[in-house]
Amino acid sequence: MKKLIVGFSVLAAATFSVFANGEKDAAGIDWPKKSINLIVPFAAGGNSDVNARTLAKYLTQELRQPVVVTNVAGSGGTIGAAQAKDAANDGYTVLVHQISMHMAQVSGMVNFGYQDFEPVCVFSRASDEVLLINAKQHPDWRTYQDVVNATKKDPGKYRFTANTGASTQWIGIAVQAAGAKFNIVSSGGSGERLQLILGNHVDVTELNYSQVIDYVKNGTLRIIANVSTERSDILKDVPTLKELGVDCGYSYDNTFFMPKGTDKVIVAKFAAACEKIIKTNTQYKADLEKLYQTPMYKDPAATTALYKSQYDALMAIRDQIRAGIKK
Q: Domain 36-126+252-325: which topology?
């Protein structure tokens, strides 16, 4: 009996050792050992920034190291993206981006894209992107068609602001192609565009619904179209651009990327931490609901497939996009 007990103890110890080594192999390396820099390539206060900061708080707890958001704004997100691309691939730099990444590449602004990163995961979907006017500046504009008619009456007079090289520029090109006669002016990210429309510096812009809900409710801003591909449950009475004859529409799937060549084990570990929070942390879910954002998780393979399909769709209309930018 004594031999049996001893034998069992040895076997148990060996089994634990194998499991422990398996855990170590699964983790690959001892990571993270220090703070992680989360680069948001847009100004503070916008969709990407808010979503990144909301999750970063919980990632800090899960990974037991600080996850610090750094805003590196400019040129439609390309400056921050380039900084992340060129960072060391040691797992301590993470980029936050979305469909705008493709626009910069397809338009020819930059010569890199999602292919030059390690896609980690989609971690949230932004609330509906909407086209807005300042209702106090233009009280007679009630619908999208009212705005288009005004631009046709005075071509070039009314300003549509878009972030050059980002998805908003795609919208600007699309509404022009559908017959509107705006003066397309360049701006920064959504935080900057909000201030421009509130200050009557532009006439039409695109913003995330979560950013403008209070201004819509108090009558300062008016929604004239939904940029998403389908009508929203929240904005059931707002038509999509596609319904209005504009061949464009998309959703913002906020996504983490790491520099190319980052160890796959690190990518998997970061993705797993995100997945755990997104799927099990009720407080995180509540935080997102307050922001009108949707928790979402796609693993590295599914994220790569999503970005490939988006890229292929935009490449199919590359000539129109580049022609629209030249105009």
A: D-Maltodextrin-Binding Protein; domain 2 (3.40.190)
